[in-house]
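call fold(seq) -> C-alpha cells
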Amino acid sequence: MPLMNYEDLIVDILDYPEPGVIFKDITPLLADEQGLAAVIDDISDHFLKAGITKVVGAEARGFLVGAPVAYRLGAGFVPARKPGKLPRAVYSAKYALEYGTDELEIHRDALGPGDRVLIVDDLVATAGTAMATARLVEETGAELVGFSFLLELAFLKPRQIIAKEFDQEVYTLVQVN
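ret:
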C-alpha cells in the first residue's frame, strides 16, 4: 500500500484539453524528488518478489515511470513505441482511441519465452494502451505478470476492461472515482 499521499502533488486542470474535462497533471509529482522516489519505490516494492525480468513502458510517459522501476527491480526495460520509431523488425498492435485508432510496436527480439514482464504506465483510463501492450507481450511468448499505473481513472472501469482478456494483477497508486 502506498505510503505517500500522491494526490497532494497531482494538479487538477479544469477544462483541459476540452471543456468539461478535468486533466490530472502528474508533472508536479514527477518533479518532486520525494514524490518521484516514492512512486518508483512503491511500484518496485510491490513487484519485488515477482521475478520480473523485463518492464515494458508505453510511449512516452510510460518511459518516465517504467525505466526507473526496471532499474529498481534489476530488470531490463523495453519501450513500446509509436509506429516507425524502432529500427529493426517489430511486433505491432493497434488499439482504439476516443476518435480513431493508434498503434504500438516493440522489437521482435526485445522479449521472449522465459521473460517475466511487468507493464508500467503513468495512467490507465480506457485501457486501450495497456491492452495493446499486453498483446505485444503475449505475441513474443513472454509471460505477462502484471500491470502497474501511477494513476487510474477508475470511473472509466479500466480494470474490468483488462479483466475481460487478462487475469493478471492491476496495481495502481492513485484511483480517481
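The CA atoms of residues 50 and 158 lie 23 Å apart.
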